[in-house]
């Protein structure tokens, strides 16, 4: 059996694949957080619960309406995104002129409520969600076995992340969004409805979390705790990349997933803390994050 640095090749690439899978979800979730914070200046602690909500809505569509994975991918993000729009209009919009702490406390409380409701209904155990038949099985690459669904997760998350980056950073709509965060009065003078833009931006960030939830359901199962277990790591990813940085969220999401996978191979004891160790080092050297800007 071939070895690299004393580790069997199949085990090494297997952990790298797991790291890429985790990194895909880190990138998608941190991207949604970065969009919301970068354009709205809201630290959205509800993000993990909205990720869980996406998985549960997909599960309910399958069990109550008979709609499978592909329908869930189409329907769940706008449905959960619409619930985010309602939350933004009814609650979060009232806090924009207050300190960021109020938004954080509100969204943290909402996350606890949503998780508590689903835990009371479904308990703490995970609910199975089937991989779509079109993506079942896998292929032998010689040095490792690559499941088709895992390959789909990596490819789809890359497309979504890069597409979001392009829209925010390279299009007129993205320019309006960025300008609205700096000078909303000026942007509104051009006839642009800034409050509506802000609301839709929050809804889009929530839809990204819901999309990640649907994609995660066949891998991690559907559980009320799935968002709570992940959101702390995702916040660490956002801090390392730079709060509000779209590129930082994508690069650090995938990069830290790979580092976590390598750590499981060479030093498993540190695999659960390596991201937080990196966060501490980055904050000491560059407090704004790797891709953030000092204000």
Fold and architecture overview:
By secondary structure, the protein is mostly helical. The chain has one domain (3-107, 146-285). The chain is built from 11 helices and 4 strands; from the N terminus they run E-E-H-H-H-H-E-E-H-H-H-H-H-H-H. It has helices at residues 9-40, 47-64, 69-90, 100-122, 148-170, 172-182, 184-189, 194-220, 226-241, 246-266, 274-285; strands at residues 3-4, 7-8, 138-140, 145-147. A two-stranded antiparallel ribbon has the order 1-2. The radius of gyration is 19 Å and the shape is globular. The model has no long low-confidence stretch (mean pLDDT 89).
Features:
295 residues; mainly alpha; two-stranded antiparallel ribbon; 11 helices; 4 strands; 3% strand
Short description:
Helix content is 72%, strand content 3%.
> How would a crystallographer describe the biggest sheet?
2 strands, antiparallel
Question: Largest beta sheet: what is the strand line-up?
Answer: 1-2
Topology, number of strands: 4
Mean pLDDT comes to: 89
Question: Roughly how many Å apart are the termini?
Answer: 53 Å
Estimated share of beta-strand residues: under 5%
Structural class of the secondary structure composition? mainly alpha
- In the predicted model, the low-confidence regions spanning at least 5 consecutive residues are none
Q: Say what oligomer this is.
A: single chain
Q: What general form does the structure show?
A: globular
The H/E string reads EEHHHHEEHHHHHHH
How many DSSP helices? 11
Work out the radius of gyration.
19 Å
Helical coverage, percent range: over 70%
Q: Give the count of structural domains.
A: 1
